[in-house]
Structure formats: structure tokens, C-alpha cells
Design goal:
This protein has about 300 residues and is an alpha/beta fold. It folds into 2 domains: about 1-250, Rossmann fold, CATH 3.40.50; about 255-300, no CATH class. It contains 8 helices and 12 strands. Strand 6, helix 7 (about 200-205) and strand 7 form a beta-alpha-beta unit. The longest helix has about 35 residues, at about 85-120.
């Protein structure tokens, strides 16, 4: 499966930031643009990239797939109670199929994670590195941080160059395994688990051990940040999460204003000279002062 780093923006700060979405969160160019717009609205600093991986053009999103899994399992239970064993077997088969599908995605996340050091080694070198991952993207990062490939990324003491200043895992579809998180912490100055007990998608995920995205991880050095978000709300609340973990926004959008997108009315943080992608529809928008009010205008 192909994966690539999509440049978002660069404000010249001595920092590289990489954002990793879930397996099926960005299946089309339009969805990629919307996600880039949500991240851009938080004004992250440095040389910023979105890691594109997973399902590109087909398959339902994670929420639909996991809800279908739960419905199939529940239907199977109801049918066996009613004595309809053939229907039960069909329902159980669907649930098993969705479970296998999830584990296939999880394995893909871990594989791409092991390759991440090689991808990062091709980027312009900055003083430090921040990693952000959501859902199975968080699983990808945890795999990356445990990978011996970090040693090949270039620095002494098996720490990559630039060093991982911070890795933030949000709504992580990964087990709260102390050994794995402890090993990952050795590769990052800060390892932060942003979790929420309100995450309905993770509650029905086909994992049978405690999930980090639902609870604190009891591993030495790991920071836990509790929030009250559902699974698909993390990127929309990314500006607040960025602030809560102590990351200052970029000066690239100094004097930026929130304007409605001319195509879909979604709010876009933008300026006159530095257009931004609308998080609603992916349109490139800049600010324009008309009749004493800032309005969104389509950029070429």
C-alpha cells in the first residue's frame, strides 16, 4: 500500500510536524483537503506534513465499519436466542469478516509505521520533530516509535535526527500495553495519550484488551490528557488539543481572521495574502475586506 508525505505549509520555524490520519479518514482528494483545512485552522508551526496512507478511494469509514461489526454481532446473539441458528451463523460470519478487516487495517498501520523513519529521513532537516496521530494513525506512530528503523534515521544513541520532541496519540486504536508504550517513550521526549471515555467507535472496536484511546496508559513517562470527544471530533478540536499539550500556534497567520467559505459557509482561518483550505469543502480561501466586513473569497 502506498504512503506519502503531503506538504501543508512551512513558516520557517526549526521544527517538523507530521500529522497521521486514521485508516479510512482520507479516502479521496476532497477528504484530504478537508482534513488539511482542519489542521491548518489550528495554525501549527514549522514545516508541516500530512502522512497519507491506508484506504484511498474505497471502503466505508471506520465508524460505519465498526458499527456494522457491532450490529452483526448483536444480531447473531438475538438470532441464537430465537433459535434461528442459520441466521446466527450468517451474522457471526459477517462479524468475523469485519473483525478480520479491522485487523488487516491494524497490521497495515504497523507496517507503514515501521517505514516512517525512512520517509522522514527524506525531509529537510529541522531541529526537532513533532508527531500527531489519530485512531489507527496513532497505532502507526506507536509502531514507528518502537521500530529499530529510528537508528537508521541518523543520530547517535539510536535517536533519530531530528529528535522526536513530542508524539501525541489521539483516540488511539491501540492497546494500552505498558511494555509497548514504555518502549515508545524511549524514542520521544514527550509521549502523550489523548483519550476519551466518550469515544463510541473505540468502544465497539474488535479489540479485547483495554484501549489507550479510552483510558489513561499507566506507563512511566507517558502523559495522559483526558478529553470528552467522540472518535471523529479530534481533528475538529485540534486547536484546543494543541494548546492543552503546550504547543504555540504559528506566526504564519498573524492577523488572521475567521471568514465564511464562499462555497459552504464553513469558518476558515485565513488572511489576505495567505490562503487556507476550507475544512468543510477543501476550497482555497483568502480574506477580503468588503463594505467594512471581512469575507471569504475563492483563491486561484
Amino acid at each position: 500500500m502506498q504512503s506519502l508525505l503531503l506538504p501543508l505549509h512551512d513558516d520557517g520555524a526549526e521544527l517538523t510536524q507530521v500529522f497521521v490520519h486514521g485508516y479510512e479518514a482520507a479516502r479521496t482528494p476532497a477528504e484530504l483537503r478537508r482534513l488539511a483545512g482542519l489542521i491548518g485552522r489550528a495554525r501549527p508551526s514549522g514545516d508541516c506534513y500530512l502522512l497519507c496512507w491506508g484506504a484511498w478511494l474505497d471502503g466505508p469509514d471506520d465508524r460505519v465499519a465498526w458499527q456494522r461489526l457491532l450490529e452483526s454481532a448483536n444480531a447473531a446473539v438475538r438470532q441464537i436466542h430465537a433459535g434461528d441458528h442459520q441466521a446466527w451463523l450468517r451474522g457471526l460470519g459477517t462479524a468475523a469478516s469485519e473483525t478480520l478487516r479491522f485487523w488487516s487495517h491494524a497490521a497495515e498501520a504497523e507496517r507503514v509505521g515501521r517505514e516512517l523513519p525512512r520517509l522522514l529521513d527524506n525531509l529537510p532537516q529541522r531541529a526537532s520533530l513533532r508527531l500527531w496521530g489519530h485512531s489507527l494513525g496513532a497505532r502507526l506512530l506507536l509502531s514507528a516509535l518502537q521500530s529499530p528503523g529510528w537508528a537508521a534515521a541518523g543520530a547517535t544513541n539510536d535517536i533519530p535526527s531530528p529528535p522526536v520532541q513530542q508524539a501525541v496519540l489521539m483516540g488511539a486504536a491501540v492497546e494500552a500495553d505498558v511494555a509497548a508504550w514504555t518502549a515508545a517513550k524511549q524514542r520521544a521526549e514527550r509521549l502523550i495519550n489523548v483519550h476519551s471515555s466518550h469515544d463510541l467507535v473505540l468502544r465497539i472496536a474488535p479489540l479485547w484488551t483495554p484501549l489507550a484511546g479510552l483510558r489513561a496508559v499507566d506507563a512511566a513517562g507517558v502523559e495522559n490528557l483526558e478529553c470528552q470527544l467522540d472518535h471523529n471530533e479530534y481533528w475538529r478540536q485540534f486547536a484546543e488539543i494543541q494548546q492543552r499539550v503546550g504547543c504555540a500556534p504559528s506566526d504564519l497567520y498573524q492577523g488572521a481572521v475567521l471568514v465564511p467559505c464562499p462555497a459552504c459557509d464553513e469558518e476558515v482561518l485565513t488572511t489576505r495574502d495567505q490562503p487556507s483550505l476550507c475544512p468543510g469543502c477543501g476550497l482555497k480561501v483568502h480574506a477580503e475586506l468588503r463594505d467594512g466586513q471581512w469575507r471569504g473569497s475563492r483563491s486561484r
